[in-house]
Write a structure and sequence with these properties.
The complex is a heterodimer of chains A (228) and B (274).
Chain A: H1 9-26, E1 30-35, E2 38-44, E3 53-57, E4 60-66, H2 68-88, H3 96-113, E5 120-126, E6 135-139, E7 145-148, E8 151-154, H4 158-168, H5 176-188, E9 200-206, E10 214-217, H6 219-227
Antiparallel strand pairs in A: 1-2, 1-8, 2-9, 3-4, 4-5, 5-6, 6-7, 9-10
Helix pairs in contact in A: 4-5
Chain B: H1 14-21, H2 41-44, E1 56-60, E2 64-69, E3 73-75, E4 78-81, E5 87-91, E6 94-100, H3 102-123, H4 129-142, H5 144-147, E7 153-161, E8 166-172, E9 178-181, E10 184-187, H6 191-201, H7 208-225, E11 241-246, E12 249-252, H8 255-273
Antiparallel strand pairs in B: 1-2, 1-10, 2-11, 3-4, 5-6, 6-7, 7-8, 8-9, 11-12
Helix pairs in contact in B: 6-7, 7-8
The chains are: A alpha+beta (228), B alpha+beta (274).
Chain lengths: 228, 274
């Protein structure tokens, strides 16, 4: 009987992590950034129909980077989790924290038990109402979960984009207009061609909206915000 | 891809997801429940009789549809609730009114709300008006086992069809059959009385104010003749509720507006008595 080769657990985890990181870095970046009235999402996404940003529940949104099929699956599972909880208990019992925990558990288990880890990095964001702070959770391919403050970047050259955003940070929450132009200029420095409003996916979780707070911004609105 | 710790399912329907994975939470649970072996009293006397003390109605008008309902819930000969709401906003362009057993009715409205929102979020676009009406039909059909135990849910669905640019009214039967009404409809124990009033006074393309008056007058007449339907409660200030379903979305008719219409109706009736 042939003996399986021995691979040390450290080596195996390292290989998997490298594989996943490579897959995530291949794509383009998405940003979630707090602004005065909520949270702004900006993604470099040339497709108008394949979304990277999505509504999950009343005040919760999701952003994914990496392999589309994989984060799309996570997104759907998250919506199911949220709708089930809201139906069983009450709408206010659906929280980003519990959703982020679910994602973290799933990604962690898949990372350690499956041959191929998921090549995804996701954001779960909840806009705070009634004086509550916003919550931004970044969850990596291995299930590690990071509670981000004010801004988070996933996918592509995320570190370069984050550095560009940090440079512009003033310590105060920007207006929607300012936040959008920060994000666009930070995204703009990496690709070879200039970003157009059509090549951007922009959405907001707007604190002042009643009920479902997620709203997509059309290219026309983005152009108007960026020009004026 | 199976995701541990998160619900796994493939289709965009929340109702199907619940039925498969959480059957205890959904409508029309089959099998011998605590009521399963009871002799059904409604079948002892011949054909199935459907208890549904209520009047809810919908009328088309120029801009869309007005949907209205009374506020009374009964338990046998007792009044169980004077303020129950029977007209629900389901999403931005649809509303439904219910007749039947209050618990399952409210549950179905909540499930239908979640269903439409769930589909919209998963698929990235809302269901068509027709699609929503069909889905509700399937839910009514799923409730059929409960009907034999006396728990009827009878919805009246109203949606604004953005593609056609018109409001639409759908009625159902207990087997989930779905029928579109062209002008107006009313269901519940006072439904026939309300339909009689609407038949006399309905015209196509009524202005908004007249459509509301006709809706409230029909409810008033139904309450006059039907014990299961609540009229305006002048002492407590409880009036029927109504919503407009138009291209601008769903709008509640303000209470003082409804009260003013009833004041007018009552004054007219009173002048006939003296």
């Amino acid at each position: 009987m042939p003996m399986p080769y021995y691979v040390s657990p450290e080596q195996m985890m390292q290989d998997k992590a490298e594989y996943a990181k490579k897959g995530i870095a291949k794509g383009r970046s998405s940003i979630a950034m707090e602004y005065a009235d909520g949270v702004l999402f900006t993604a470099d996404n040339p497709s108008a129909s394949l979304h990277k940003i999505s509504e999950v529940y009343d005040n919760i949104a999701f952003a994914g980077a990496g392999k589309y099929s994989e984060f799309e699956n996570l997104r759907k599972a998250g919506i199911r989790h949220a709708d089930l909880k809201g139906f069983m208990y009450s709408r206010e019992d659906v929280t980003a924290r519990s959703l982020a925990n679910g994602y973290s558990q799933s990604l962690g288990t898949i990372f350690s038990q499956e041959m191929k880890p998921l090549e995804v990095e996701i954001l779960v964001v909840q806009v705070g109402t009634n004086g509550q702070p916003n919550e931004i959770y970044r969850i990596s391919f291995d299930g590690s979960i990071i509670d981000e403050k004010s801004v988070a970047v996933i996918g592509g050259k995320s570190e370069a984009v984050l550095a560009a955003l940090k440079e512009k940070a003033t310590g105060q929450l920007p207006s929607l207009k300012a936040a959008l132009s920060f994000c666009v200029s930070a995204l703009d420095q990496t690709p070879n061609q200039k970003l157009t409003p059509e090549g951007l996916e922009v959405a907001v979780l707007e604190r002042s909206r009643p009920g479902r707070k997620f709203r997509r911004l059309t290219p026309a609105e983005v152009r108007q915000l960026l020009s004026a | 891809m199976k995701l541990p710790y998160l619900p796994n399912h493939d289709e965009p329907s929340f109702f199907d997801f619940l039925s498969q994975h959480y059957p205890g939470l959904t409508l029309g649970r089959t099998g011998a429940g605590p009521l399963g072996n009871l002799q059904d009293p409604s079948r002892a006397g011949g054909p199935l009789s459907v208890p549904h003390a209520t009047t809810v109605l919908a009328i088309k008008y120029q801009q869309g549809v007005v949907i209205a309902g009374d506020r009374r819930a009964t338990e046998g000969f007792q009044i169980a609730d004077r303020r129950i709401e029977k007209v629900f906003k389901i999403d931005d362009y649809s509303a439904m009114a219910i007749a039947g057993a209050a618990g399952p009715c409210i549950e179905m409205a909540k499930l239908f709300q979640t269903e439409l929102e769930h589909y919209e979020k998963l698929e990235g676009m809302p269901l068509s008006c027709e699609g929503k009406a069909n889905k509700l039909g399937q839910m009514v059909k799923a409730n059929l086992p409960m009907v034999f135990q006396g728990l009827v849910v009878m919805p009246l669905y109203v949606g604004y069809d953005l593609k056609r640019g018109e409001g639409r009214i759908f009625k159902y039967d207990i087997t989930g059959g779905r029928y579109e009404e062209s002008d107006y409809h009313a269901i519940g124990s006072g439904g026939k009385d309300a339909r009689n009033t609407m038949r006399e006074h309905f015209q196509r393309q009524l202005p908004e104010a007249e459509a509301l008056t006709l809706a409230l007058m029909s409810l008033y007449n139904a309450a006059d003749d039907d014990v299961g339907t609540g009229g305006p409660d002048l002492v407590r200030g409880i009036y029927p509720t109504a919503k407009y379903v138009t291209a601008q979305g769903i709008a509640d008719v303000p209470d003082d507006r409804i009260r003013a219409v009833f004041d007018g109706l009552i004054a007219t009736r009173r002048s006939k008595e003296s």
